[in-house]
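Predicting structure from sequence has reshaped protein science. With that in mind, we have picked out one protein's residues alongside their backbone shape tokens:
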Amino acid sequence: MLGFLPDDPVIIAIVLILLGLIFFTYLLLRRTVLEFRDGMEGR
């Protein structure tokens, strides 16, 4: 495997879950801001 990745599958799973949560939060915030902007413009 790659040198910088740990061999422990638990650590890999935790990192993947954290990355998924960060991505989901980004999409949620982006959608909220866009909907708010459209609502303020009266669309």
User: Anything to note?
Assistant: The radius of gyration is 18 Å.
